[in-house]
Amino acid sequence: MTGTSKTRPRGGTAWAPAWAAWAALLAATPGPAAAQTRPDAEWSEQELRRIFQFSPLPEPPPDPTNRVYDDTAAARLGQFLFYDERLSGNGKISCATCHDPERAFTDGRSVFVGVAEGTRNTPGLLNVAQQRWFFWDGRADTLWAQALQPIENPIEMDGARVAIVRLLLSDASLRAAYERVFGGIPVALASADLPPAARPAAAPAGDARQRAWAALSSPRQEAINRVFTNVGKAIAAYERRLVGGHSPFDRYVKALRDNDAAGLDALSAEARRGLRIFIGEGNCRMCHHGPNFSDGEFHSVQVPPRGGGPPSDPGRYDGAARVVADEFNALGRYSDAPDGPAAEKLRRLRNTPENWGLFKTPSLRNVARTAPYMHQGQFAALDDVLDHYSNIDRAPVFGHHKRETVLQPLRLSEADHKALRAFLESLSDEAPDAALTTRPAEP
Ligand code: HEC
Ligand code: HEC
User: What is the mean pLDDT of residues 170-180?
Assistant: First the structure.
């Protein structure tokens, strides 16, 4: 692969006005440096079209399944809960234990460690509200339903929804914050004594919490589920505010759009060379597509399982089945828009054996800050990821999968490898506002 630049075709194009503006600007500021940084000279028209698909990053789409998705008080409550260890069974684990704001909301581990060690890598949360499906296997279809799973997962936080209702009832300031956003907690919950911890989750087998849940009447179960889902909705309102989009790459694209010669320094020549590979021969954009660098779909890029042997993680095949069965999905009674677009996305979902072993295309924004990589953290560094794509024909193919045709071995030269890495590194944002990354004193 070479880094030769292609000159864009001239004449009668949509770019003519921009070119005219450039010509005027260059006439005003003559000099060799300015001449070299003309976008016109560096990128073909097709390349510019492709580059512009990646930036700017828009606001995350609205989420009508969560009526408080954009509510400030809900986000504040959600932020408080995100950093609150009391949501866990042992009182020691919060969302931020694994999603550390200092590491772009990851934990720096290959696979997570909560109450016990898991089998998946912790993804970062910046721009998470841009996603269509949540988790590596997409087993949640909304951000609020996603938040409910780690709370009760026996190896993550091992909490219980009834314990959370009791926490809200017993902590006066938390209760007041909750009731300001969602209204009063039903009298049936406030007056009657609830078991200390109860949840429907099956593991571990024969768990007393599960028996306690089964003993509750279904109206009380439903009232508890309402409070539990509201907790998820508040957390989602917080997570929605974890946004970026001000990386050096974004500044460069803005300068390209605005014909701002000075701003073109935002991206080094090496990173621009990497960008050319990314949108061109590298085919990366086929899956890492659009302003969040993800098509929101599921693929296999043939990453060998951690620990060797054939893969045992069914990925999307399991995730698609679980999201359809989830009582907290966008179609269910706890959704605030069971007829909205998220519900439609779920109705259209078809699961097939082809989904076995597929994982969601992760965003590449802030990727330099979220090592290790892939669904099991199989790769320690970006260099390992690039070596993998470069020699993908040497990675084993398992089961019925064929290699996706866009995944051709790139045999990157050392210079191209470094260029792609420099480009990926240019996707890092400044850290979000400190007010958003700490536990507030009050909910
Ligand atoms: C013990 C570590 C741990 C804790 C605690 C934890 N998470 Fe996660 N989180 C993970 C891992 C690992 C994944 C990916 C799991 C998978 O795909 O199966 C994940 C996935 C996510 C995702 C989906 C991201 C994506 O790109 O699809 C979101 C959102 C999220 N967590 C938010 C939360 C919230 C909110 C909490 C607290 C209620 C929380 N997490 C608690 C480890 C953790
Ligand atoms: C066929 C779709 C596809 C193509 C083409 C593709 N990727 Fe990926 N990429 C994925 C998927 C899916 C994953 C996650 C795979 C997994 O965990 O098993 C991923 C993971 C990654 C990761 C790790 C991110 C993380 O947070 O763990 C990086 C970095 C990456 N890709 C960069 C690239 C680059 C650079 C190219 C071009 C050379 C490229 N990808 C081409 C689909 C693709």
Answer: 97
